[in-house]
TrEMBL record:
The chain crosses the membrane at residues 7-23, 62-80, 87-107, 127-148, 160-191, 211-231, 284-305, 317-335, 347-364, 370-390. It comes from the Bacteria. The lineage of its organism: Bacteria, Pseudomonadati, Myxococcota, Myxococcia, Myxococcales. This is Glycosyltransferase RgtA/B/C/D-like domain-containing protein. Keywords: Membrane, Transmembrane, Transmembrane helix. It comes from Archangium minus.
Length: 522
């Protein structure tokens, strides 16, 4: 078998990795309806057939979430929004192993372990719909690979540095957490990567000069980050102790930081890598990845001497050092910085796992093809398991489709989701169902990411009245909040328990499907 066959196997594994995204009409991601509604608003901000022009305006300032929203909005000019979003998600899933392979090649290591990252593309962050963070991960790995080349590739340092500058800015425009990881990862690579000129270098200047292109490559991203920090921290925080989505005190004060215990983090480190499906079947591809990595570990420990990853012991520790950094972020950071960043430390479990499977010892060249095929087998198992699970969820989520048919144009939809859970997936994927109805008919909802400072949109005036958190529909007060809406999506309880006698007077059930009811004004 030739290298061409290996490339075909690798390509087939990439196709299998994205297959679950294309076999169902609905994807099990909690925040996805909110994201798509916001992108729809951004794309159709001047469309008079929607409510968007009168309710929303562009937020003309730097925010780290611009990358995803504007990228999919641009694709939306060519493709329907759902298709554009699936294409973007596919680029993320494929980009994870490809960028990891680019990093491995820059380290002088074989690239087959990059395929082991495919099952790790899905997991807790995917289930929550943290698409901005997910998209930043391949870019962060790409930055590391570009930084290595800007250091060591003597003939093309300037070109790699220019690519590094563009890539690092892109990371920040997608998500600041990936950028924060690079704040330690790039210095680590700088300190541990030898350059050819070191052999005859004398003095600090002669050592610094060949590293200058790489250092200059990070300047635009760092400058943009500092300007964003000044802008973000210069805004007054809304301190409201005990209120959801509000700061409970000064940014880094003890009352504003929520921590998980070391024991809880230790338990969740593996769990969050595959926790989408209730039957637990999505764990099997991750277990298969662990088995392949374990085989590579054993085979690598008994291998004969090879020349991969030259540069001595320190250079061989570059990739394991990145794993340690990611684990440090996972174990040492708080879970929430209220009012600023939520679900902070848990997201780094995925990055640590991706780097860990890539850190398996280098094996004998004759063993790399069987390990490549085994890695592709993990992708096949992933496609079978998640494809089945995603299709089952899509059948369950088809209740949204029936309700959309009964939704009027330009609706103002109140979401009252008393049962946000699914029979198929673990995450509360029905929480933002109101956004599905609003997007389909060019309307608005009671909860929108336009309320958040990281959104490229804002409300033109006062946001519509609603209860403090979408998680607390029991706090809904019809007298003060209800009149602002003409549609109500109720899930988990019968509407009569929410509206009482009003259901027979000013309101009526327009449609019922699954566990959801659509209530409209008469």
């Amino acid at each position: 078998m030739s290298a061409r066959t290996d490339r075909l196997v690798y390509a087939a594994a990439l196709v299998l990795g994205v297959l679950p995204l294309w076999v169902s009409s609905h994807l099990p991601m909690v925040d996805l309806p909110q994201h798509l509604h916001l992108i729809s608003v951004l794309h159709r901000l001047d469309d008079p057939t929607t409510l968007y022009p009168q309710l929303f305006a562009a937020r003309h300032e730097l925010t780290p979430y611009l990358g995803y929203y504007y990228a999919v909005s641009a694709l939306n000019w060519l493709l329907p929004l759902d298709l554009a979003n699936r294409l973007f998600l596919s680029a993320y899933v494929v980009g994870l192993p490809l960028s990891l392979a680019f990093l491995l090649r820059g380290l002088g290591r074989p690239t087959w372990p990059s395929l082991l990252s495919l099952p790790l593309a899905y997991g807790d962050s995917f289930g929550w719909g943290f698409i901005n963070y997910l998209a930043a991960l391949p870019l962060a790995l790409l930055c590391c690979g570009l930084f290595l080349r800007a250091l060591a590739d003597t003939g093309r340092r300037r070109a790699w540095a220019i690519g590094l500058a563009a890539c690092l800015v892109s990371v920040l425009l997608f998500h600041v957490q990936a950028f924060a990881f690079l704040g330690l990862a790039l210095p680590w690579l700088l300190l541990t990567t030898p350059v050819p000129e070191d052999a005859g270098a004398k003095g600090l200047k002669s050592r610094l000069q060949p590293r200058l292109p790489a250092l200059l490559g990070v300047v635009p991203g760092v400058a943009l980050f500092l300007s964003w920090v000044v802008l973000r921290l210069g805004q007054p925080a809304e301190v409201e102790t005990g209120a959801p989505w509000k700061a409970w005190g000064p940014m880094l004060s003890s009352q504003n930081l929520a921590w998980k215990s070391f024991a809880q983090n230790r338990t969740e480190l593996i769990e969050v890598l595959a926790n989408l499906l209730r039957d637990g079947s999505d764990r099997w591809p991750v277990y298969a990845v662990g088995a392949v990595a374990a085989c590579a570990l054993v085979l690598g420990l008994v291998r004969a001497a090879d020349t991969a990853d030259s540069g001595g012991l320190v250079a061989r520790l570059r990739l394991p050092g990145l794993v340690v950094l990611a684990l440090g972020f996972f174990f040492l950071l708080p879970f929430d910085i209220r009012g600023y960043i939520y679900y902070l430390n848990t997201r780094y479990a995925q990055l640590a796992a991706v780097l860990a499977v890539a850190s398996v010892p280098v094996t004998l060249p004759s063993l790399r093809r069987p390990l490549l095929w085994a890695s592709a087998g993990c992708a096949l198992l992933l496609a079978l398991v998640l494809g089945r699970g995603f299709r089952a969820f899509s059948r369950e989520a088809s209740e949204w489709d029936a309700l959309i048919e009964a939704t009027a144009q330009k609706p103002r939809v109140m979401g009252l989701i008393f049962a946000s859970g699914s029979r198929v997936v673990r995450h509360p994927v029905f929480l933002h169902g109101a956004s599905e109805l609003a997007r389909a008919r060019g309307g608005s909802t009671n909860f929108s990411f336009a309320l958040t400072p990281h959104s490229p949109l804002r409300y033109r005036g006062t946001p519509p009245p609603t209860f403090a958190s979408e998680w607390r529909p029991h706090d809904f007060d019809y007298a003060t909040q209800g009149p602002a809406y003409d549609h109500f999506l109720v899930r988990g309880v019968h509407p009569s328990r929410v509206f009482g006698a009003r259901l027979q007077q000013e309101l009526a059930v327009a449609a019922q499907s699954g566990e959801s009811w659509l209530v409209r004004r008469r």
